[in-house]
Amino acid sequence: MRAIPQKCLSLVGLILTSAPVLMAQSLPFGLQNQPAVSKDAVSTDSDLSNFTGQYSFAVQGALVGKDIISRKVGIVGSLVSDGKGHIISGVEDYNSEIGTFPALPITGTYTLNAAGVGTLTLKSSQMTQTFSFFAPQVPGRVQNATLTESDGLAGVTGSIDKQIAATSLDGGYNFSLTGQTVETSGLPNPVALGGNFVATTGNVLGSTTFFVGEAQMGGAVVLPATPFQATITAPDSNGRLAFTVIFAPNGQPAHFVGYALDPTHINFLTLDRASEFLPLLTGQAVR
Description:
Elements: H1 6-26, H2 45-49, E1 52-63, E2 72-82, E3 86-96, E4 99-105, E5 107-112, E6 117-123, E7 128-134, E8 144-149, E9 154-162, E10 171-180, E11 190-200, E12 203-214, E13 219-232, E14 240-246, E15 254-262, E16 265-270, E17 280-286
Antiparallel strand pairs: 1-2, 1-9, 2-3, 3-4, 3-5, 5-6, 6-7, 7-8, 8-9, 10-11, 10-17, 11-12, 12-13, 13-14, 14-15, 15-16, 16-17
């Protein structure tokens, strides 16, 4: 057996003894970096069957990485669960500084116990994501739940909701979107907008207020009640749709993907590769 050099042993010992202290200093609310002891019951066939059918999800948050300047990440999609611990089909759209991946086919697995606690793992050609899953403790099928990424790759959270097919999205909606620009140097600028629109057979007319922060200077620009035009496609079998917006005359179109939870709720994510002029935005429209 080859002996391990004392220098390597000393380095390993230093890392092992130092890491918990460094991590503990960075945790909020007085939390300690130590393994959790779970007392939750294991999944049973009955528990797994409560998560059955088609669901739409939307999560957003921040990437992990010391060299990443713009950390915003958004993920939206739809999945089908077989009620036996498997995600048998689905699609997701992903956008962050590291790349834009539209319409990725997904499969996966999940666990769920009687306390409404479990995990959800989604696999695509680009990545594997694992989430903690928290459903309300009410009898019957899961109608909605909270997802929080638990694999340490990104700090994202959001919701997953039972999906009801929507063949038409005609009508009036209000919406809100938040995000940031993606910068190659300097600080990303926060962006927020809210407004309303009316969709009629694929054509959209609306109005929105813009907030664009100037991170370097500490100021902001607010543009109130700006009219815009857009087009929207009918949702496919996954509830997925395209929403293309022109916010200014002769301006550059902004491309969004949407997932209709039902005829009255749509989750949105920008699909353009984010830049200093095209912010990465996530949000929802409600009728």
